[in-house]
Structure prediction request, 99 residues.
Amino acid sequence: MAGIIPRAHERRRVLWDVKLNQNGRIWTCNAFDISPGGMKIRIDEPLAVNSRLVVAIDRVGSFPAEVRWQDKGLAGIRFLEDAVVVEERLQRISRTKEI
Prediction:
């Protein structure tokens, strides 16, 4: 198909509580799709596209990130951490937590 760009990283289905911190404002939301490049979350509050924030995931850690898109209660978050580092941290949790 023309115009479709393949994903750089394999996605994993999850249902994790995550916290977003943007300049001291904290949101709790659910991630249900994650890869070393980013994640898809469900959040009812508006987030500014291209804005920077920190994502905290229990037992995985925190990552600098940015909002790539938001639509109808969903948002795409891109990790700004190196994908190799993110993958290593996700692999550690996958051995102890269902992903």
About this structure: Strands lie at 12-22, 25-35, 38-42, 52-57, 61-71, 74-79. The mean pLDDT is 87.
